[in-house]
Structure to design on (153 residues):
């Protein structure tokens, strides 16, 4: 067991396993994914902060690397299953299992990191998220239980 998220390879909890647990293509469209991905809390950034050589720049790079790894895992998983990104407004629910964070992380920053990773992979843009389902953070082995539903017209 890792003592902190600093010891885990960026973006991954080894070995990577992501599975589509439920998929319903009818109306409303529904997708549930279980994955053992490490969620690094959202970090506010500017163009300059991406290239800084200090601790702030490292935090931004770490977030971007983890987000990109999560996004790539979602893209690969959905392509393997032949599932296209959601094109309508969606409801998003998630449960996150995280290690005890060394940095301060609240639920909204963890959720924002997953929402950002879903851009282009699970949905075209996170502006499509109109409602949030139940979710929460549980301490344990890093993983995600993610649910997406299209909203009724």
């Amino acid at each position: 067991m890792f003592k902190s998220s600093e010891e885990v390879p960026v973006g991954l909890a080894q070995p990577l396993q992501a599975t589509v647990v439920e998929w319903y293509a009818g109306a409303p469209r529904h997708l549930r994914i279980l994955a053992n991905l490490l969620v690094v809390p959202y970090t506010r950034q500017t163009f300059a902060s991406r290239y800084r050589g200090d601790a702030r720049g490292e935090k931004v790079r770490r977030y971007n690397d983890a987000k990109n790894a999560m996004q790539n895992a979602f893209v690969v998983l959905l392509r393997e299953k032949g599932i296209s990104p959601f094109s309508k407004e969606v409801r998003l629910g998630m449960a996150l299992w995280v290690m005890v964070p060394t940095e301060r992380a609240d639920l909204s920053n963890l959720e924002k990191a997953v929402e950002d990773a879903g851009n282009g992979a699970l949905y075209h843009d996170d502006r499509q998220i109109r409602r949030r389902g139940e979710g929460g953070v549980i301490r344990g082995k890093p993983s995600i239980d993610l649910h997406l539903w299209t909203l009724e017209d």
